[in-house]
Write a structure and sequence with these properties.
single chain; four-stranded antiparallel β-sheet; 8% helix; disordered N terminus
Amino acid sequence: MAHVHPNRLSVHALAKLLILTFWFGVCATQSIAQTLKQVSLPEVRVTNVRRVFHNGEHNAFTDLTRFQDRYFLTFRSCPDGHMVHPTASIIVLASQDLKKWEQVHQFSVPMRDTRDPHFLEFKGRLFVYTGTWYSGETTLPRSEYDLNKHLGYAVWSDNGKKWHGPVMLEGTFGHYIWKAAAYGGKAYLCGRRKHQFDVRPRGEGPEVESAMLVSDDGLVWKTASLFQEQRGDETVFQFQDGGSVLAIGRRGSDKAQILRSKPPYSEWKRSELDRYIGGPMLVRWSNRWVVGGRRSTDRGSKTSMCWLVGDDLHEFAELPSGGDNSYPALLPLSPTQAAISWYSSHEKDADGKPLTAIYMADLEIITP
């Protein structure tokens, strides 16, 4: 719902607006609860919604983890906005209790836009990976976006206090790296790239494929397999017993897909989901899979959370969100408790301009 400055509303109009907002929220919650009951899935209560970071810049693309008894939150911050700017940086916050946060690291890469940071705990280290567009000394026009110039970088820490890097990730030039996972002493990344690194088309489109990249040390990478031959995009891997992979892949603005594979990951099975998912998340919580990300609705873009059962999604929560939003990260705390981060621009400042800020909330399973 669009923000309207209270000073421009009569008392009667403001009361009516608040009643309608409450009513729509109640109706949506009841509808979700009824649907979950029909398929015997647990309801989830969203509480303690809070804005945890805003510095007047565009803050986006979150990840959340626990490392050595502390919680870590990372995201991109840029004074020039969402698109490709060399002024972007990656911020890392730490907390003992998920309530009070302190900045423990911030980094950028000269003449590159750092974005989409993600954590990976691997071989006793906490890595933060970021994909970077080459921008040059100033903002890069969209007509000049070139995936062939993309390059991955990483910083890492042994204790969450002293950080090393950023260092270039060998083997990632021309790859837009995305979420990492680890299994069997190896690290894995999604890296999307142009087919045969074609120099003709710029930007991204149907000619983009996705590769599973593998590393022994988290810094030097090579291609393990191709898992998406067309419309490759943001893909999150989760490893299961025996090394089998379950993944959720964005497909541009088309419907997302579930992807499955077994070692050596040379063959992939794909199933289309019922919706587009922007900034997909896949997490195991309470012995069930949770899928999250941006969903298109008749009220605009929203950050949505779903149970994944087979190949079907069942929404259990819609987080407060609007406009530029999504890229959630869910961190299970117990079989019934979890924390979640995301970004959104649904709030506005005193001048009526959108705040693109980082948010968190508590999740609780309230039915078995």
